[in-house]
Amino acid sequence: MKKMAVIGDPEFNVGFRLVGIRDIYDVSSQEELEKAVRETLTRKDVGVVVIRYDLLKKLPYALQREVDESVDPTFVAVGGEGGIEEIREKIRRAIGVDLWK
After folding, report:
1. Is residue 100 part of a domain?
2. Is 92 exposed, middle or buried (0-12, 13-18, 19+ CB in 10 A)?
3. Which of the pair, 83 or 64, is modelled with greater confidence?
4. Does the N-terminal peptide bond of residue 73 adopt cis geometry, omega within 30 degrees of 0?
5. Domain count along the chain
6. pLDDT at 20 over 70
7. What is Dmax (Cα atoms) for the chain?
8. In angstroms, rounded to a whole number, what is the distance separating the alpha carbons of residues 5 and 78?
């Protein structure tokens, strides 16, 4: 069974801790952010990575593209301008079908 990981600042991560998610990356600098994203991309035990939308947009273009194209794990941006359309597109890319049609 794959796990969920979370990348965000400590305030963002509090709720995820309260529901029992253990794989949480508290980031407070650009270096920590990039390191956390790279690590989650290589972990075989993580299936979904929740990341704050504004942090996702701070990633260098090449790393942002790698995240956008990643299926396993799948990255889901929360907050900001992310939302349902982003999740819809991720599902469409992952399975090749638009479930909303």
Report:
1. no
2. middle
3. 64
4. yes
5. 1
6. yes
7. 40
8. 13
pLDDT at 83 over 60: no
- Boundaries of domain holding 44: 3-95
Name the residue with higher pLDDT: 58 or 98. 58
Q: Name the one residue in this structure whose structure tokens are 């929360």.
A: 78
Please tell me the predicted confidence (pLDDT) of residue 82.
53
Who contacts 48 (Cβ-Cβ below 8 Å, separation ≥6)?
A: 2, 4, 5, 73, 74, 75, 76
* pLDDT-derived band at 7, boundaries 50, 70, 90: very high
Q: Which helix (H) or strand (E) holds 17?
A: helix 10-18
CATH number, domain at 8? 3.40.50.10580
